Every structure is written in structure tokens, then in C-alpha cells.
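fold-stage: in
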Amino acid sequence: MTTVPRELETDRLHLRQFRDANLDAYAPIKDHVISLIDSANTPSIRVAERIGETLEGPQPFLGMVVQRYGIRREQYLRVGQE
């Protein structure tokens, strides 16, 4: 039997909570969720990737160009269920 480190299990719980909170907020109106992230913000990029979002390309936003990460609703529902 493999033991999962407590930090990893806590991290998975946080990802599930993040996913569920965002799904509750956007599910009635969205089939595609995006995150607009400054390319220098590596912690946010890691979070986006860990919840299943993939880089979709550059996006103009408030006079600057940020990176757009996104995930389709059907993929979003599966995140954290493995």
C-alpha cells in the first residue's frame, strides 16, 4: 500500500474545493472557463495547470497582454476525481 504524503492530500483537497467553488459559480452560464494570467505569475500558472487548464494563447487585457488558460466544462468536472 502506498502512503500519500499529508501535504499532497491537503493539496488535492484544496484543488477539489477550488474546482467545486468555481464550478458552482460558473456552471449555470459557462461551458468554457478561462483564467487570464500574467506570464510572470508562475504560481498562478501552476494552479491553472493543476486544475486541468491548458495554455490557449495570448490575450489582450486592460492594456497589456496576458496568457489565457482554459478548460472545457466536461474536462473541468473530471478534475480531482481520479
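fold-stage: in (second)
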Amino acid sequence: MEEIVDKSIDRIVLKVENSVMSATTVRISLKGHALLRRLAIADEASMSEVLDQALEAYRRQKFLEEAGAAYDVLRRDPRAWKKHQSEMSEWETTLGDGLKGR
């Protein structure tokens, strides 16, 4: 990974390579770069791999937050929540695993 330090803007520019050897430039703070480097060393991974894992974890977190917010909206509408619960109970009968629900 190529590092280009531009101290005039207190940032490090990283040239990040992916599996097909194409690259892009991403600006991160010096603090972020230091943390990324420490995590990569601790995991015995490249900074690019750690960044990919962090982005995937962030994507999943945002998905769950958005799903939770959507359920909050649904719960606030008694009619919609009742309909949702009814639909979910119908799906429970499709399991066919012979186990009783909780």
C-alpha cells in the first residue's frame, strides 16, 4: 500500500488496492491512519483488509439500525403492527419442523 502524506491538510492519502489490482485514493485523518495501522498489525492483516472488514461491519450495523427504526414506526401504528403480527404467525406454520413455538 502506497502512502502519500500531505501535512498541509493533516491527512494521509492511501492508495488502496483490491483483488483485481485496481486502486483508488481515500483521504483519512492521521489519527484514523494510526488506528488502522495498529489494527492491521494486531490482526496480522493489511490495512486494506482491515478497512474492508470495518466497512462491512458498518454496513451491517446501519442495516440493523434502519430495520430497527422501521419496526419502531410499525409498532407505533397499532393496526399495521397487528397486521404484521398476523402475517408473522402465518409464516410460523410453514416451518414444518415439528417443534412448538416459544
